[in-house]
Amino acid sequence: MSTPPPHPRLRLFDLPLDVIDLQGTLDLLGGWLIDPARTPHTVVTLNPEIIVQSRSHPEFAGAVQDADLVTADGVGIVYAARQLRGEDVPRAPGFDIVKGLMEQHGAELRVFFLGAKPGVAEAAAHNAAREYGVTVAGIHHGYFGPEEDRRVAELVAQSGATLLLTAMGAGRQEVFNQEWRGVLNVPVMIGCGGVIDVLAGTAELAPAWTRKLGVEWVWRVAGDRKRWNRAPRLLHFVRLVGAEKRRKG
Ligand code: UDP
Q1: Close Cβ partners of 113 (under 8 Å, ≥ 6 residues apart)
Q2: 207-212 long-range contacts, Cβ below 8 Å, gap at least 24?
Q3: Closest alpha carbon to 196 in 91, 119, 92, 103
Q4: pLDDT confidence tier of residue 206, bands split at 50, 70 and 90
Q5: Reported CATH class of domain 9-200
Q6: What is the pLDDT, as a whole number, of residue 219?
Q7: Which residue minimizes the CA distance to atom 20 of ligand 1?
Q8: Which residue has the least CA distance to atom 18 on ligand 1?
Q9: Could you tell me the distance, in angstroms and rounded to a whole number, from the CA of residue 182 to the centre of ligand 1?
Q10: Is 29 helix (H, G, I), strand (E, B) or coil?
Q11: How confident is the model at residue 235 (pLDDT cuts 50, 70, 90)?
């Protein structure tokens, strides 16, 4: 771990949460990106899914605990921070971070696109290069087992990437970045769920109004049958926050 960031850090369910907004995040990551030391850093954009899963998967919890930066991805985390800590935490969602970095750094950014179904990361890389002028350091799909982790991590290391987008589903992506950070050796590694799909155009970004209100998950759950089973998990999260609040008195 590098020097602690200059912003407050809360604890939510035994996980860290940095009180930092989007611009603060972009400034911090920008500094990491241009540092000639190339110190590896991991970024987690915390969402209810990760909190719920981390309670039964200690390795997920460990990956979040050891991350260099943990931002609030959405309104669920803002709600939990208000309920449990009485704090208003700003959001810095994964997609906005990735887009902001690409806009600010353009061709200086060497991006490795890791994740999603075969072919999707290629389309994402193509679009990002066209739209933001980023340099594509490498591409790999996200459907491989743990026995292939080292091979993929070495591929990333050899690419000389400065930004690694790991989009292999909540939990798996955070654990991969944290476990292999020494081999990956990328200045900024971010677990960013469906971001590669959005960049590729295979998933639509939630409409602006839902993003403004911080409720894009409502749109995603409603619009995607595969995600319908997640609605009860979100209710579970709300109940979990209530139970934690009572426990803390
Ligand atoms: N994904 C992947 N490998 C896997 C599972 C998922 O690369 O083993 C990709 C998936 O194709 C999608 C992204 O991870 O691009 C996010 O997947 P999903 O929406 O299921 O996960 P979430 O982050 O919402 O849990």
Answers
A1: 121, 122, 124, 125, 128, 136, 138, 139, 140, 165, 196, 199
A2: 211/93
A3: 119
A4: confident
A5: alpha beta
A6: 66
A7: 169
A8: 169
A9: 24
A10: helix
A11: confident
Ligand 1: residue of 54, 168, 233 to mutate (most ligand atoms within 8 A of CB) is 168
Residue 120 CA, closest ligand 1 atom number:
15
CA of 82 to the centre of ligand 1 (A): 29
pLDDT at 236 over 80: yes
pLDDT tens digits for 103-132? 999 999 999 999 999 999 999 999 999 999
Q: Indicate the DSSP class of residue 61.
A: H
In three-state form (DSSP H/G/I as H, E/B as E, the rest C), the secondary structure along 14-27 is CEEEECCCHHHHHH
Residues with CB under 6 A from ligand 1: 49, 115-117, 142-143, 167-170, 193-194, 196-197
Q: Whose CA is nearest to atom 1 of ligand 1?
A: 168
